[in-house]
Each structure stands twice: as C-alpha cells, then as structure tokens.
Specification:
heterodimer; A: mainly alpha; 6 helices; B: 145 residues; mainly alpha; 7 helices; extended
C-alpha cells in the first residue's frame, strides 16, 4: 500500500512542478526554491510528518523534504538550547544530502570532462 | 513589419510542446521514482539490517551519486527532456545542478572556477531553505512560546 502512496505523492509533486514550468516563465530553479520554502511551511503546520508516516521513505525523495528537515532541525535546536540551538542545529539532518552532493560533484568534476 | 506582427509570426512558428503530455509524463515518471525509492530503501533494510532512517539516508546518497554520475557522463540532460520535472523535483535535481556547475566552471580554475561556482544553482535551494526554516522557527516560538 505504501508503494501506491509513494507513487501518488511524488507523482503529484512532479506534476504540479511541470504545470508551473509549462504555464509560467519560471524556471526549474524557481520551482525548486519554492518547493523548499513550501516544505518548511508544511513542516511548520506539522503536515509533512503526517505525510511521511503515510507515504514512507519516498517522502524524503522530493526536494520539499529538504525544507521540512531544516525546519524540524531548527525547532529541535531551539527546544534543546534556545536561540543558540537554532544556529547550531539547523543543518544537522540535511548534512547527508548536502555533503554527499558536494563530495560527488567535486570528484566527478575532477575525473570527467564537461560534455558538449 | 510592426513589432506586434513579428511577435505573432514568432509565436506561430515556435514549436508547441504538448502540456498535457508533459504533465502526465512527469506524474507517471515521478511516481515511478517514488516507488523505486521505496523499493531501494526496503532492499537496504533487508540486506543490511538498517533502521528506516538509516536506510532512507543511504537511498538518498545512492540517488545523489547516480545523478552526479549521469550528469558527468552527459546523460542526465538528455533524460530530463524525456522525464521532465520527474528528475528535477527529487533530490537528483539538486545533485545535478551542483555537478553540472562544477563541471562547467572547472576550466576557470579550481578556486575561482569550480569552488566559486559549485553552488551557483544549488545555493538558492540552501539559502531559501535556511532562511524560511529560521523565520518559521522564530514565528513558532513567538506564537507558541
């Protein structure tokens, strides 16, 4: 059953993005930035965690999850240590995604030559 | 020729993309990506006895690695023309933007090229994510105390 929810959830997010791109002058960059902010807002209203419990691991795949994770980490930091905690904690849960992207990008750029 | 007329002619000859087909393609392909993510996570849990959280993180790292590799091989951009936003909205789009920027600016040197431009596109995602998360945490603190 979670496979069906995963299909619908990720599919609908991609569908919305494609409709925005086809019908406005916005680029992929605008849409991904909007999605991240939307993820933080969904996290704020505690919607994204509910989605995650229904959809499962696939809910971490879209970039929307990035905004949610940032918000949750910031909130955890605040509850733990106050204002200082926000600054100390904000990037903790997203570290795997950001660091792996940087590391792979760097070594790919070292090894390969740009095409075209 | 007047500007208006010119615009009309340009509009007439611009190849029309079928928006309905685009939308359906990205829905189906995005959905299949979701299923793939779920399946990979389940496999990792089964093979390596990982918790859901750890298996999910490994799944994300796998997808990021594949997106980087396909970008470096020059295949990713071609795939985007077929799969549309289904490849950009998942974390693969983030990895793609980073790797392509790193590759494109490598010729300008390590520091002023690769280093300075690596975050060119991914930067806005990180920046707006952090700013919105920070503001929302502050708002939540003010409202709920």
């Amino acid at each position: 059953m979670s496979y069906l929810y995963a299909f619908i959830f990720v599919g609908v997010l991609c569908l919305i993005a494609q409709v925005i791109i086809d019908n406005t002058t916005l680029s992929f960059g605008h849409v991904t930035s909007m999605y991240v902010v939307a993820g933080a807002i969904l996290g704020f209203f505690e919607i994204y965690d509910k989605i995650k419990s229904i959809v499962g691991p696939a809910a971490s795949l879209p970039i929307v999850s990035f905004g949610n994770l940032l918000y949750q980490a910031g909130l955890d930091g605040y509850l733990d240590k106050g204002l200082l905690g926000i600054f100390q904690n904000l990037l903790t849960t997203t570290s795997a995604g950001i660091c792996s992207a940087i590391i792979f990008a760097f070594f790919m750029a070292l090894v390969f030559k740009p095409k075209d | 020729m007047k500007k208006e007329e010119y615009k009309k002619i340009v509009k007439k000859h611009t190849p029309k993309e079928n928006r309905l087909v685009n939308a359906l393609t990205s829905f189906v392909m995005g959905g299949l990506f979701g299923i793939l993510a779920q399946a990979v996570t389940d496999l990792y849990r089964y093979w390596f006895n990982l918790t859901i959280a750890d298996a999910t993180t490994w799944m994300l790292i796998t997808f990021i690695f594949l997106a980087s590799l396909l970008t470096a091989l020059g295949i990713f951009d071609r795939l985007v023309t077929y799969f549309k936003s289904a490849l950009i909205i998942p974390i693969t789009g983030f990895a793609h933007s980073m790797t392509s920027a790193a590759l494109d600016y490598k010729s300008d040197g390590m520091v002023t090229g690769l280093g300075a431009n690596c975050f060119k596109l991914a930067g806005s995602v990180i920046l707006f994510g952090i700013i919105s998360a920070f503001i929302l945490v502050i708002i939540g603190v003010i409202i709920y105390g």
